[in-house]
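Margin note from the TA: students keep mixing up input and output lines. Inputs are the sequences; the output is the structure of the whole complex. Example:
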Amino acid sequence: MTRTPVAALILTALALAAGLLVEIRSDMAAVFGEDAAAVTAPRAREILVAVRSDEPAARHAAARAVADAMRADPLLHELSTGPAPPDRALRDWLWRHRFRLAPPAPSDVTPGALAARLTEARARLTTMAGMAVGDAMLRDPTGSFSRLLQRLESAQPDLPVEEGLWHTPGGPAALIRGVLAPGTQDLAAIRALTDRLRSAAADAGARAIILGPQVVSAAVSHRAETMSAMVGGVATALLLAWLGWATGSLAGLTRILLPLAIGIGAATLAVQGLFGSVHVIALGFGGALTGLALDYPLHLMTHRGAGQARARRLILIGAATTAIAFLALSGSSLDALAQTGVFVATGLLAAGLAARSLLAGSEGTLRRLPFPHRLTLPRQPWWEGGLIALGVVALMSSAAPSAERLYTLPAQTEADLAEIRELVDLPSGRFHVVVTGSDAEVVLRTERALLPIIDAQIRAGRLVSARHLGAILPDVAEQEARRAALPSAAAYGRNAAEALAAAGLATEFQDALVAAYREALAAPPVVPADFAAWDGLSDLAASLEETGGGWQSVIPLLGLTGPDALSRAIRDAQIPGAVLVDLSASVNARLAALRETAITWLGIGGAGAFVVLLLLAGDWRRALAIARSTAAALAVTAMALLALGIPLGIFQILALTLVVGIGIDYGLFLRLSADRAAAVSSVGLCATSTLIAFVVMAFAPISPLHEIGLTVSLGVCAMLGLHLAAQDAQTP
Amino acid sequence: MSAAAIREGSVAYREEVFHPALKAPAEASGTFRRRGNGTLIRHQREPVEEIAEIGEAFIALRRDPDEIATLVPIPADIAPIFALLRRILSVGSVDGAGLSLSPDPGGWRIDAGPETGGMVLRGCGAVLQGLEIAEPGGVLRRITFRGRE
């Protein structure tokens, strides 16, 4: 009886250590890898906030309050709320570099062309625009500066403006665009940010609709967490009630739960020690899979005397076998998988050892339940062989599920998406042109090569616009080539003098024109980093990013209606480094890769587990039979899932691995226990406990929980059926 | 031109723009009107029609009264000129506006300081007769008010 307080003390120490040391992560890089462009690209980090109120003053005030909150938040990398006129310093910089950014063609510097522009510039002097740029128009009759300003203006979003704020065409919402800082993948932090922004809008009497890939991910994740907590709460309550009834005492219930709690505590600390943090996926999945350890006390408390000594050995074999299978996942390069492997392996072994120590020598105190002692399945080995073969074929022919199956959009997010789509055309969240290159200049050159293709799509009505840096900034080689094609200052001066006379202007102004021309010719090359320094240009520069192995830009596509035509046009033009990316397909490909990784490592782990089973079971024929029945039940479960229209994705694969652990556990006891009746009773108790938890999960309204619950429930039934039908068990 | 005049109706103006490239100043004419919401309407009729509604941060531009306005942000360096102009036209007096007053053959001159790009107001007594705005590049705008329309 003194062992329970000791175990409780160990658990308390583990809990304290975990509370002090463990750092929880929820980033997606742990799932998709650090180079996951789909989740790290600037466009995937965009946030769009629509501030709605029918009262204009409240709407404007709320939009400014939200913008202030975003500006002050370290999670935000960029922010734009409305058209930003170039200030004097930017205009001066653009003026000096106009021949780099928008050099004139030879036809622009003929006396006739210069005279025409001088005449036009003179007329514009008396207009409002003339106040800002009239002098510049007269000093640069090549049209270079004018074209540059027009390009910058056309690069701005084509949206109505109220009080300096972009608005939806209908007017009821102000729009704010933000970009999260590179590397921002903490969904909990993103959700906290959206909560703050909604509060800022509400305090000012308006409503904020916030969308963006990461924002939607955060909402989906939050809903999953909420539903998991609810389902977990119901399942835990039912399970405790069931186990309480089975043990008949609080002390008995405590002794059942302590090993599992110790296992989870030890597993959490082991993952923290090895990886420096614990990912929520490892915690969630690992915790659920380690739930298998709940079976160990049930076995020990059901068996008596010599039977319990045998049960202690079988528990160790079961824990070691399943631990080896999961430990193989630690070979994966994906942190979430590797952590899950270490978590389950450590958790099962720690829980197994804790159960053996805590319950050693204790008499069986659990209720015996009237489970059937044996089912009948004639020619069981042949049936099982056939099922395994069918299962392998089914598994190999099944495709990875699409990402859409992984999440269910919360109703509020669905409503927000529908509302914002009614208000404004959004850039495609699915299709982007991605340009990659060894350096920024290569990327710019490729973007320039894409210009005629994009223009053709816009002319054909298949695209509204595609905003990108290359539309304004040529690469340095192109800048040099175009500058070299310009006439000398002396030749320009002669043309300018002729043009001034033809336009009826003062010919002595020729010196000022030549001086401005010389200054523009002497300007140094412009590179993307130069754009980053200016408020009005920095978002264009931000679309170009250095990645692990080079540079990349992501071009957003507004109003894209013909992705196939654009993709074909890019392919036909054979522009290296440019590709139309279907973000959805990219995520699906990564999920498929994740699934393949999990299957590969679990396959290796399964082989290791089989070797451990053969070595430790002490009876190779029965070990082989346990493996055969387990594999057959696994195949039955997989085929049942496929028949129900549930593809075998990463969640199902991990759930099936738990089913394998359960199957080995049942097989060991039903085939190798010295006390058949006790074994049937303890396996029945274990199966009922597992079913209580996972059947509740199967009724969850979100896809992953529902499918995991269904997978384990079906798997438990299949394992129980085939192992109970075993004819090679110990004599009852 | 008094603020009351602007509030009550349109005030005609004539504008001359001096530039080193020009042999003679470019000329324009039209009216000013102030709306109740604080914006100033500059309706240029010659040489080309242009209607500008000058707000705090934006100018809404139209080529004729029926056209949909194009909203142009006011560049930061020009904004003080418009802000000062709107302020003076709103209060109808330069008294207490922190501006320096100096004698002028035409009455008095008020230098609005360097932050306005060198804007000078001309007048006699309580009547604002015109204003001059010196811009970079040797550009000078001279606007003369010609009374109510």
